[in-house]
Amino acid sequence: MTRLRSPPPPEPLRAHRALAADVAGAEPLPEAGCADCAACAAGALSIYAPTLAHAPEKLRVLRQRKRRFGPHQVIARHSDPADFVYTLETGWAYRVVQFPDGRRQILSFLLPGDTIAAEAICAADYSAPYTVRALTHATACGFRPHQLRELVFACETQRDHFTRYLLEQRAYAERRITDFGRRRALGSLAHLLVELFTALRARGLAQDNAADFPPRQEDLADALGLTTAHVNRTLLTLRRRGLVSIQNGKLRVHDLAGLRKTAVDN
């Protein structure tokens, strides 16, 4: 099956939308207030989880800010110095490369516990080649990169945990390359839905095989390098096979094993 790449938009709607989001999201919203780090569910899934489990007061001291972001508001901008490394506490976000003509490539979706600008921990004066935007209303905790660098390498347990995180990120990137390079559209979409649903379930955000799912078909298309129409047809195929359905912002996985098999076979 020939993969259909997203063509340039016929009108500047998407470029206009991106520009509007840039303007609206140029500055973070007011401080969101500080919760108890020891009780933070997202922190337990983060790159500093071992330290949080044994010495939550360290994170409370190191945390420099806690911010709220509105949908599509910029959290970290392309080419800007990464002055903060964020842990997403609530909501969804996404890493994206935006092209001048309005096209975009979504590199990954981010969920509570995920790290934003983790590369800055490893490289001083790091500037990301992508932008991070909130997909929904979101909150995030900000840390100075050099302070997190000291923390994640402070002891063997924490260092091993961070190393596993880096290896998982590389493995994720390699799976995405496989999706783009050789997997059919049916397999690519099935694979993305399996990974997102598995991550949501691990965070306790899925119940009875269902979870809130804010990405639109346009977002899925831009994550997979397909047209929105192709994603629509592929979702219909998955639904007709009794594997998965997305309706009114809710993802329902009817047959996870079957969905996994579809991802592998295609």
Biggest β-sheet: strands ordered side by side in the sheet: 1-8-3-6
Instruction: Look up the CATH topology of the largest domain.
Output: Jelly Rolls
Q: Quote the distance from N terminus to C terminus.
A: 10 Å
SSE sequence, one letter per element: HHHEEEEEEHEEHHHEEHHEEH
What do the pLDDT scores average to? 87
CATH class group of the largest domain: Mainly Beta
From the spread of the alpha carbons, the general shape counts as globular
What is the second-level CATH architecture of the largest domain?
Sandwich
Helix content: 40-55%
CA-based gyration radius: 19 Å
Low-confidence stretches: 1-21, 23-33
Number of strands: 12
Helix-strand category: alpha+beta
CATH superfamily of the largest domain: Jelly Rolls
Profile the largest sheet: 4 strands, antiparallel
β-strand amount: 15-25%
Count every helix, treating DSSP H or I runs of 4 or more residues as helices: 10
Total discrete domains: 2
Topology:
Blueprint: H1 13-24, H2 49-54, H3 56-62, E1 63-69, E2 74-76, E3 85-90, E4 93-98, E5 104-110, E6 115-116, H4 119-122, E7 131-134, E8 138-143, H5 145-152, H6 156-181, H7 185-202, E9 206-207, E10 210-212, H8 217-224, H9 228-240, E11 244-247, E12 250-253, H10 256-265
Antiparallel strand pairs: 1-8, 2-7, 3-6, 3-8, 4-5, 4-7, 9-10, 10-12, 11-12
Helix pairs in contact: 7-9, 7-10, 8-9
Structure report:
The protein has helices at 13-24, 49-54, 56-62, 119-122, 145-152, 156-181, 185-202, 217-224, 228-240, 256-265; strands spanning 63-69, 74-76, 85-90, 93-98, 104-110, 115-116, 131-134, 138-143, 206-207, 210-212, 244-247, 250-253. By secondary structure, it is an alpha+beta fold. The protein has two domains: 13-172, Jelly Rolls (Sandwich); 183-265, Jelly Rolls, CATH 2.60.120. Helix 7 (185-202) crosses helix 9 and helix 8 crosses helix 9 (228-240).
